[in-house]
Structure formats: structure tokens, C-alpha cells
Amino acid sequence: MKAVIRKWGNSPAVRLPLAVMKEANFSVEQKVTMVVTRGRIVIEPSEVVEYALDDLLEGINSKNVHAEVSVGRPVGKEAL
Fold it and tell me: What is the pLDDT of residues 22-33, one digit of tens each?
């Protein structure tokens, strides 16, 4: 499949046909990584990073926990 590099704002851009997106199993707004290898541009899916709340909470200890911070008195409907 062929495409043309065009100008989009101040950057060059290539429009990806839907068939290419489907075959590569990519989706709109998906994060990707671009690598230049031997004069070729390779577009790869970015590694998906997911966080589990329980795992993050396990990482809290006396050395990295911060003190309570006061931001002033409640205002408006903050004080019930």
C-alpha cells in the first residue's frame, strides 16, 4: 500500500488507511513508539502500563509518606 507524506501544520504527516490500521491491530488515539532503523521508520505499539491501587499502596512506607498538608478552612459546600 502506498501513501504520500504531506504537511500538517509545521510537521510532515502520513495518513494511515483503515485497512492498515486493522491489519496492524492499531486504534485511533493509541500510543505508539516510532523507531528509525536503517533509513526506515517503524511504528510499534507503546507498552501499556497499568497500575493496581493495592500495589501502589504497598509501596508507601515511613520514608516516602508525606505529612498532612493544610490548605485552609473549608469554603462553600466543602463543610457539610
Answer: 999 999 999 999
